[in-house]
Design goal:
With about 100 residues, the chain is mostly helical. The protein has one domain. It contains 6 helices and no strands. The radius of gyration is 21 Å and the shape is extended. The model has no long low-confidence stretch (mean pLDDT about 75).
Length: about 100
């Protein structure tokens, strides 16, 4: 979605410039790209300084990496992370007593 908006930044910017306010800009982006409100907001939040060739290539590369990650099954992702959610290993939370000195 962001890659599509970055590929034609002038048309994307024209949608925003022609809109009366942010809500109508979001609707225009939704209709133009055929996306939902979250994706349209991502386009509106997009930083157009990233619209140069290098930035567009980075956006496309990020999109491809995220698509590959999302295409994996959840059990495979958990196994790749070590089976402990987003952490590689389980951690233990240790509470420090209120009057105890801070470790250095």
């Amino acid at each position: 979605m962001l890659a599509a908006a970055a590929e034609d930044p002038l048309a994307t910017l024209a949608l925003v410039v022609d809109a009366a306010d942010e809500a109508s800009a979001r609707i225009a982006v939704q209709e133009h790209f055929g996306v939902g409100p979250v994706e349209a907001q991502a386009v509106l939040d997009m930083q157009f300084r990233r619209a140069n060739r290098h930035g567009r290539a980075a956006i496309a590369r990020d999109r491809d990496e995220h698509a590959a990650i999302l295409s994996e099954s959840a059990p495979a992702r958990r196994a790749a992370r070590g089976g402990h959610g987003p952490l590689r290993r389980p951690c233990r939370v240790v509470r420090r007593q209120r009057d105890a000195p801070r470790p250095r």
